[in-house]
Write the structure tokens for this entry.
Amino acid sequence: MMSGSTQEEEELPVNHTGPKGVINDWRRFKLDSLDQTVPQSKKELLRQMSSPREDDKERLNRKMSVQEYEMIQEEDERCLKHYRKQCMQEMHERLSFCPAFEEVYELESGDAFLEVIENEHRLTLVIVHVYQPGVKGCEQLNSCLDCLALEYSSIKFCRIDAVAAGASERFTPEVLPALLVYKASELLGHFLAVTKHFNEDFFATDVEGFLNEYGLLPKKEFTACADDEDEGEDVE
Amino acid sequence: MGEMEELRKEMENLKDQITAARKTFQDTTLQEAASGVTVVGRVQLKTRKTLRGHLAKIYAMHWGTDSTLCVSASQDGKLIVWDSITTNKVNAIPLKSSWVMTCAYAPSGNLVACGGLDNMCSIYNLKGKDGNVKVMRELAAHTGYLSCCRFLSDTEIITSSGDCTCVLWDIETGTEKMVFAGHQGDCMSLGVSPDFKFFISGACDFTAKLWDIREAQCRQTFSGHESDINAIGFFPNGNAVITGSDDATCKLYDLRADQELITYQDSSIMCGVTSLAASKSGRLLLAGHDDFNVNIWDMLKSERVGVLAGHDNRVSCIGVSSDGMACCTGSWDSFLKIWN
């Protein structure tokens, strides 16, 4: 939902999804392609179409030019494979460029909590454990998060004592321990009494599995197929 | 030049008159009517399955009517039919062109279709006699890219195109039965009404149009968006239309009131909407944005109640099954996920 990052500002504003996403992917493929059949004049056209001028009202309603339609042809599969890999690698890199953390941070006050939520890097996931000493499950959850903090260095894990936060009215013992998940100041996940989802004895892997179910953790695997491109597809 | 100016003025006048006429029928707003309804509360969906097999960005997906099978189209030049429960690949269909923009599953489950920069809609028979999936028809007549297609039956399909028209095809003869012309910009998406009598189209002229299929006529036009409409769908009861636009908002238009009921927008959302799906009850709207994020809206209260796949923005397309039990998302990293 954030509109731009330092990386994105350098790029031409394009669509990534839907039919316009396909058109822009095709344009980029023709521009970047190893295939030498695209002459310089056509490349210039592709660049122009990628960033329509605001004042060209007639052009705005039409997304592809006649000359571009003429450029569509059967493409070299080898070039296509290279391009697809490149696309995904770039996306992965774009998302992996962010600060790294090693431990769970103790937030001493409500202000510290707000500071973390609002000021972390827009790509950094912030997971806050709201606890109270003596409440069942809090200590166990703390140990689990200590482990996960080592494994997921891109995530900033924090914990805050509900009383220290001045939030003990909202975070009463019945709803503790609670996990709050934020990114770019946005609340992504909100789990009160989170231990009700686990057994009496639970471990880091249980917490990890739980967060994964909601799509909240980064993928540990690189896309499974990036290196397996030469295997034949089974057509049943 | 004088005449053009006059005509332009007349057109603006007519538009104002239409807007005024619509307003006189408006006796309440959606917000007022829904004020007694309690908010839905935070919606947090869980991944139930991951479908692995594609090699590149998923461009489109569509559920079959049995709510179990679904078809996906990817930049890797393949259509894959999945069993979303077992996660098995039922069919893997190689396409002639990698630049596929849309795919569709026939209500019968016998056929799938796709199309894209090849300007054609290709129909595949899944239930061929020898068990192989082959191209059954190539519907070629559009002079622009194929942005969307939806089956009416095994014999009829509707397509929308970058040539600004939509077409109803006779699949058996491979010919155009009706051409729906009227949009002033590329048609980006279409949706068929629950009773199969009407369809709606969203285009780059910032409008949505309701078409009577048999009469080949545009019945209603809805404006208000400030940029291209990329995604469109019927509200589950068929009485309203939901649109998603590059202006970063979604709108709900009521067919009988012939006007916009509400705009789903938030000042923190600046990225265009490129896909959308409503829950079966119509209470929730899932809006997929071009930055690969999905926002979940309470449609009655016009409040954001959640996001999908919170960590990495990866979602490139979405679809809700007809039984309303699951949502499927395709992503740029080649996977599809089933959520509920």
